[in-house]
C-alpha cells in the first residue's frame, strides 16, 4: 500500500480510500460526506442491525444533497464507491479509518484491535468521540502516533464543523495532513494541538448547558424561556462570527466591565442537574420517544426531525455565503 505523505501539497480524495467503523446516525452522515468528497468508502457495521438501515440512510442523504445542490451527481454515482460490510478484512487497503461507535472505552478498545489487526502501519486511525480524551484512547492502540480525534457535528454532510484533536503522542504531521484533507470535505476545521477533555466546542457548550440548568432549576426562567434566549441572541450571530470576533464587533470594554460582576455569580457545580437526571432515569430520550424537556406526540416528533433537516440545508446555504475568510476575500476584490 502507498504510504501517506503528510508533506505533500497535492491531495486527491479519489486516491485516498477511507473507512468508517460504526453506522449509526452520525456514521451514516460522515460516510455521506466522504462519498460526496470523492473517496471510496468501506463502511463497517459492528452492529448487525445497522446493516439493515445504513444504505437507505446514506442514499436518502445523497438524494437530498443532490436536491439541495450540495453534490453534483445522483445518489447512485456515489454509492458505487461504497461498500457496507461486517468484515474488518476489507479495511486492508484503507488509508484513513474513522471510528464512530458508542462512547464506551471498552468497546472502542476492541474496535481498535480489530482495525489494527488488518490495516497497514501507515494508516491513520481516528475517533469521533466527543468526550473521551484522545490521549486516553491512544493508550488502547498499538501505534499511538497515528491516532487522532475527528469530532464531527450532525448532520456531518451539511455542517462546516470539524475538530481535529491531537493526543499526547500524535504525530503532528499527520494532524496537519488531516487538516488539509478536511477542506476537501467542505469543512472549516479547527486543529486542537493540545488534548483536553471535551475539546473546544463541547467545553463551550457544556458551560452554557450548566448555566441553563441552573437558571431553570432555581426558578429564574422556564425551559422555553432559556431556549428563546439562546436562539434569538447567540443563535442570531454565531453562524457569522465566534465569541471573540463578536466582542470585537460590539465593544470589548463593555464585556470587560460586565465580567467583573457577573463571573463570580455564574454556576460552577459539578453534579449532574436533577432536571436531566430525572428525565434519563425515567427513560426519556427526547424526540426519539416523545419524552424530554418537552413532550412530543409522534406527529410532533416527526415534524421536528423534518424541520431540523430542512433547517440544516437552509443554514448551510447562509453559512457558505459568509465563509471564515469573507473579509479577506472582500479586501482582495476591492484591490482589483
Automatic annotation (TrEMBL):
<dbReference type="GO" id="GO:0006631">
    <property type="term" value="P:fatty acid metabolic process"/>
</dbReference>
<protein>
    <recommendedName>
        <fullName>3-hydroxybutyryl-CoA dehydrogenase</fullName>
    </recommendedName>
</protein>
<comment type="similarity">
    <text>Belongs to the 3-hydroxyacyl-CoA dehydrogenase family.</text>
</comment>
<dbReference type="Pfam" id="PF00725">
    <property type="entry name" value="3HCDH"/>
</dbReference>
<dbReference type="InterPro" id="IPR008927">
    <property type="entry name" value="6-PGluconate_DH-like_C_sf"/>
</dbReference>
<dbReference type="GO" id="GO:0070403">
    <property type="term" value="F:NAD+ binding"/>
</dbReference>
<feature type="domain" description="3-hydroxyacyl-CoA dehydrogenase NAD binding">
    <location>
        <begin position="18"/>
        <end position="195"/>
    </location>
</feature>
<dbReference type="GO" id="GO:0016616">
    <property type="term" value="F:oxidoreductase activity, acting on the CH-OH group of donors, NAD or NADP as acceptor"/>
</dbReference>
<dbReference type="InterPro" id="IPR013328">
    <property type="entry name" value="6PGD_dom2"/>
</dbReference>
<feature type="domain" description="3-hydroxyacyl-CoA dehydrogenase C-terminal">
    <location>
        <begin position="198"/>
        <end position="296"/>
    </location>
</feature>
<dbReference type="InterPro" id="IPR022694">
    <property type="entry name" value="3-OHacyl-CoA_DH"/>
</dbReference>
<keyword id="KW-0560">Oxidoreductase</keyword>
<feature type="site" description="Important for catalytic activity">
    <location>
        <position position="151"/>
    </location>
</feature>
<dbReference type="Pfam" id="PF02737">
    <property type="entry name" value="3HCDH_N"/>
</dbReference>
<dbReference type="InterPro" id="IPR006108">
    <property type="entry name" value="3HC_DH_C"/>
</dbReference>
<dbReference type="InterPro" id="IPR006176">
    <property type="entry name" value="3-OHacyl-CoA_DH_NAD-bd"/>
</dbReference>
<dbReference type="InterPro" id="IPR006180">
    <property type="entry name" value="3-OHacyl-CoA_DH_CS"/>
</dbReference>
<dbReference type="InterPro" id="IPR036291">
    <property type="entry name" value="NAD(P)-bd_dom_sf"/>
</dbReference>
Amino acid at each position: 500500500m502507498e504510504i501517506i505523505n503528510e508533506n505533500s501539497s497535492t491531495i486527491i480524495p479519489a486516491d485516498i480510500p477511507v473507512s468508517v467503523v460504526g453506522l449509526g446516525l452520525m456514521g451514516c452522515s460522515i460516510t455521506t460526506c466522504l462519498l460526496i468528497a470523492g473517496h471510496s468508502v468501506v463502511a463497517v457495521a459492528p452492529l448487525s442491525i445497522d446493516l439493515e438501515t445504513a444504505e437507505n440512510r446514506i442514499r436518502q442523504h445523497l438524494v437530498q444533497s443532490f436536491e439541495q445542490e450540495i453534490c453534483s451527481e445522483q445518489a447512485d454515482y456515489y454509492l458505487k464507491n461504497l461498500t457496507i460490510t461486517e468484515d474488518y478484512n476489507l479495511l486492508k487497503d484503507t488509508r484513513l479509518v474513522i471510528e464512530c461507535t458508542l462512547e464506551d472505552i471498552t468497546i472502542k478498545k476492541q474496535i481498535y484491535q480489530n482495525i489494527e489487526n488488518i490495516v497497514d502501519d501507515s494508516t491513520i486511525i481516528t475517533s469521533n468521540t466527543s468526550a473521551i480524551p484522545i490521549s486516553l484512547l491512544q493508550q488502547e492502540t498499538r501505534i499511538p502516533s497515528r491516532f487522532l480525534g475527528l469530532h464531527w457535528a450532525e448532520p456531518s454532510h451539511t455542517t462546516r464543523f470539524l475538530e481535529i484533536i491531537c493526543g499526547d503522542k500524535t504525530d503532528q504531521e499527520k494532524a496537519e495532513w488531516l487538516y488539509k484533507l478536511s477542506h476537501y470535505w467542505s469543512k472549516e476545521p479547527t486543529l486542537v494541538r493540545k488534548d483536553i477533555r471535551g475539546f473546544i466546542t463541547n467545553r463551550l457548550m457544556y458551560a452554557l448547558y450548566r448555566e441553563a440548568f441552573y437558571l431553570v432549576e432555581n426558578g429564574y426562567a422556564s425551559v422555553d424561556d432559556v431556549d428563546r434566549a439562546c436562539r434569538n441572541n447567540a443563535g442570531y450571530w454565531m453562524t457569522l462570527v465566534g465569541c471573540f470576533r463578536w466582542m470585537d464587533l460590539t465593544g470589548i470594554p463593555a464585556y470587560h466591565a460586565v465580567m467583573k460582576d457577573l463571573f463570580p455569580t455564574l454556576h460552577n457545580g459539578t453534579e449532574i442537574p436533577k432536571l436531566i437526571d430525572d428525565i434519563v432515569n425515567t427513560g426519556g430520550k427526547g424526540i426519539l420517544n416523545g419524552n424530554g424537556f418537552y413532550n412530543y406526540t409522534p406527529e410532533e416528533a416527526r415534524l421536528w426531525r423534518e424541520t431540523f433537516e430542512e433547517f440544516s440545508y437552509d443554514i448551510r446555504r447562509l453559512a457558505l455565503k459568509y465563509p471564515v475568510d469573507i473579509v479577506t476575500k472582500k479586501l482582495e476584490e476591492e484591490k482589483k
